[in-house]
Amino acid sequence: MTKKIVIVGGVGGGATAASQLRRFDKTSEIVLFDKGRHISFSNCGMPYHIGTFIDDRDSLLFPEEKFSENYNVNVRSGTEVISIDRAGKCVECRNDERTYMESYDVLILSPGASAAFPDIPGVENSRTFLLHTIPDMDKINEYIRTHQPKTATVTGAGFVGLEMLENLHSLGIQCTMINRSNRIFRPVDEDMSTPVPEHLKEKGVTVHLDDGVNKFSEDGKIVHLKSGTEIKSDLNIMSVGIQPNVSLAEEAGLEIGETGGIKVNDCMQTSDPDIYALGDVVETGNYVTGAPVNIALAPPAHRQAYILSGHLNGSTETYKGVLGTAVIKLFDLTIGAAGHNSDQLDALHLEYDSVEVEAKSHAGYYPGAEKLWLKVLFNPADGMMYGAQAVGFDGADKRLAVLSTAIHAKMKVSELSELELGYAPPYSSPKDPVNILGYKAAGKLKK
Questions:
Q1: Is the overall model pTM greater than 0.85, yes or no?
Q2: Transmembrane region positions (predicted)?
Q3: Is 44 a known active-site residue?
Q4: Active-site residue identified among 44, 90, 93, 267
Q5: Which of 10, 24, 46, 221 could be cross-linked to 14 through a Cys-Cys bond (beta carbons 3.0 to 4.6 Å apart)?
């Protein structure tokens, strides 16, 4: 039956949901609202455009007109949905010209998350920027083009902070990293992150860990740290986290989960069965433990769009949870994790053990073998894997992919030793580091 489907928010969640819905359903009316002017773009590519690794800005964008034509979607960019009338099944919308009501049969919420702009004295200055949207990227590019900064600080060691660090460095800008903890890239445990600061220093990056910004002065030219250190900087990037945009849902009385995201079931329905939600704004369950998580990554959003659109068209397939597999390139290092880390397992009061391997990326006698560190966390009673981590100069990403797949397949940790992984001296060793994890873990399992 023909329906009217209204989607709030584009990009990886809403735009993907619209395209998936149209593949299932050729007749229903689909209206997509986005308060910005770019309804579909690659967030992940923005730091690399700033660093000029990606020259063509337009390659990051899916033009609104093309999207609308390809998927037969009524796209209304520059229009913000400001309230939901659940009883009347309509939303209140506002653009530059007017405020009006739009009815729906099904409502899909994908408002994403917002980058946190910390409440620090002097933070609102002409040298300090966030990077979360295309306009943010354009502002940074324009500033670099106009002012040609020689020095920069990056506060925060998550995805955006680390990627911006590398890309600003590639432009010849002397960079300083500031992070409030002593761990860089929080998905990995502290012991796995130890090679990272040294690698940054080898690249000429100044690193301040266990420290934070206390204030800015001289229009952002001086960054004052809590330790008392003062840093002169021409450009400042703040990357201290994101918050899911739940106010619209909260004001409509939809249930918000304990992680701060909109609570959904395994079909991506909210507490109102006619309203769905997906992407950075939702709380789902961890694939292994079922623990509530709010994961802001593109692959889960794409999977959720598939599940949601299928459910609206009669599919019984459900969303089984998220591992949160994440990987990042930082100069010559690859850093990645899947599933729970030790902090999360401690918070869940779960008994676990772990094993670590320091190895070479391939046979040591073949040229180019590089250091590789792997770790897996598991239930010592039954061998179920809770999470895995990989750090290395070569081959870390493929080991992480194997470990993530093994966790998804619910393999026991000891079964890692049984995997037959492709071997030749340029690629691995006869006993791959992943196999070694399995052998070591087998000795720790309770008999």
A1: yes
A2: none
A3: yes
A4: 44
A5: 10
